[in-house]
Amino acid sequence: MLKINLKRILKLNFLRDILCFLAASYIKLVFYTSSWEIIGFERPSKLIENKTPFIVAFWHGRLLMLPFVWDRKKILHLLISRHNDGELISKTVSYFGLKSVRGSTNKKGAEALRKMVKFLKNGEWVGISPDGPHGPRMIASPGIAHVSRLANVPIFPIVCSANRAKTLKTWDRFLIPFPFCKGVFIWGEEIAPPSSSSKEIIEGTRRSIELELNKISLIADNKYANKKTSISNNSSE
């Protein structure tokens, strides 16, 4: 079996650029050849129309089709890890007008989180994967709750699923929909920013994000009886 050496690819810019171009082309192929349903967009739509910033929260394994559920005329900054896969993701999403901030939601990503807060206060939107960059899968870290509090903006979870897809054997069970599939995007309920920085309040918000993301993930997967991508198939199994 052919194994891709990401470090070697990243050292060769032309190979990295080719790989990212192919990835972006595949994402476009999947989207335009498939049938998509968007559920719950009425939840964040008014804030988007009024140019009110908020945080888009999504599980790392459901990132692939995210560019097509967002209006590229609205600036969205994605928090992308500094790992090798993050370099590829950052370059790929740039084809769709999405911007990247390199870092994470853990303690080592404090500088990146401060940048996200700044973007939000400037009236722009940010996207954060609370289980990135390396898990545990579908368990939210508190970083996203801190960003929400500091910027005083709400959080809107979103998830994608499809009836025909490949689930990679990676820590995040990365989902790759196939062309000519039927897919769905589901926006979750709005989650208010924490009222204080106390551990109890932050934990409550973190838990709410995790529960809402897992709830809509299960709804999306059950829509197509997609057993391979259900949340019961977690990283610890």
Structure description:
By secondary structure, the protein is of the alpha/beta class. The protein has one domain: 3-Layer(aba) Sandwich (Glycerol-3-phosphate (1)-acyltransferase). Helix content is 39%, strand content 17%. It has 7 helices and 9 strands; from the N terminus they run ααβαββαβαβαββββα. Strands 1-9-6-2-5-3-4 form a 7-stranded mixed beta sheet, sandwiched between helices. Helix 2 packs across helix 4 and helix 6 packs across helix 7. The protein is globular, with a radius of gyration of 17 Å. The two termini are 24 Å apart.
Query: What's the CATH first level?
Result: Alpha Beta
Quaternary status of these chains?
single chain
User: How would a crystallographer describe the biggest sheet?
Assistant: 7 strands, mixed
Strand order of the largest sheet: 1-9-6-2-5-3-4
Shape: globular
The CATH topology is what?
A: Glycerol-3-phosphate (1)-acyltransferase
Mean pLDDT: 89
Q: Label the CATH architecture.
A: 3-Layer(aba) Sandwich
End-to-end Cα distance, whole Å, is: 24 Å
Topology overview:
Layout: H1 6-11, H2 13-33, E1 35-39, H3 42-49, E2 55-57, E3 76-80, H4 84-94, E4 99-102, H5 110-121, E5 125-128, H6 143-151, E6 155-162, E7 165-167, E8 175-177, E9 182-187, H7 199-223
Parallel strand pairs: 1-9, 2-5, 2-6, 3-4, 3-5
Antiparallel strand pairs: 6-9, 7-8
Helix pairs in contact: 2-4, 5-6, 6-7
